[in-house]
């Protein structure tokens, strides 16, 4: 049964855009909703994209979860990085199968999960999180996304140093990125890209100045917005609600650090 749902499969049980649930199929579990309950055992053997009726006769759709779903349904104790930012980071950092990625600031693991999906099956993400309560939540989210074998969580303070070298890319998501940027520079391979995610201009200014001073070039800061379009025949319009500011992404690439006497000043 190619594509069939099995016990233990991860599904998105969909009713509408606001009411959908990421679930692990368990034949012993009955899932209760506002539209009646669903016996998850009835899903085993069905194909993704099929429907199921609740105890009240209401139709639900059984979807195969996307990376977007895994991120938006993440358990969290802190603000997660949103898909609108994660997608741009994956593109700008050229994350693909085989990449070795250094991440500092695991948080709830949303970016970690997306990066692991991008680099598997031959790549790996080494992520640093010094707060145990965040690392525990991240571990659960990573396991639920079935990417634990592609991730190593380091319960350590990256400001005192990181393990490994010749990483293909780095992601920084901490409040004081300048404390880890020198270690990131040492750990990256030549020309490798890095992004630092920060919510304030002050952080961006200090990060950009340090990037340029210790050996990064092609430095660019971006803020990303997306707006949903509410489609209804004859009444299509932009949604009145959107996710606004989440953070600024400062991208750069590792270069050789110039000696002071080799710097040319252009007037």
Please tell me about this protein's structure:
The chain has 267 residues and is an alpha/beta fold. The protein has helices at 67-72, 83-92, 110-119, 132-144, 181-187, 201-214; strands spanning 10-14, 20-24, 30-33, 36-39, 51-53, 59-63, 100-104, 124-128, 151-154, 169-172, 193-198, 216-222, 229-230, 237-238, 248-254. It has two domains: 10-65, Vcp-like ATPase, Chain A, domain 2, CATH 3.10.330; 69-262, Rossmann fold, CATH 3.40.50. It is built from six helices and 15 strands. It has a seven-stranded mixed β-sheet, sandwiched between helices. The longest helix is centred in the last third of the chain and has 14 residues, at 201-214.
Which key phrases capture this entry?
Rossmann fold; four-stranded antiparallel beta sheet; 25% strand
CATH topology heading of the largest domain: Rossmann fold
| Number of separate structural domains | 2
Q: pLDDT under 50 segments (min length 5)?
A: 259-267
State which percent range the strand residues make up: 25-35%
Terminus-to-terminus distance? 69 Å
CATH class of the largest domain: Alpha Beta
Largest sheet geometry: 7 strands, mixed
CATH architecture label of the largest domain:
3-Layer(aba) Sandwich
* 3D shape: globular
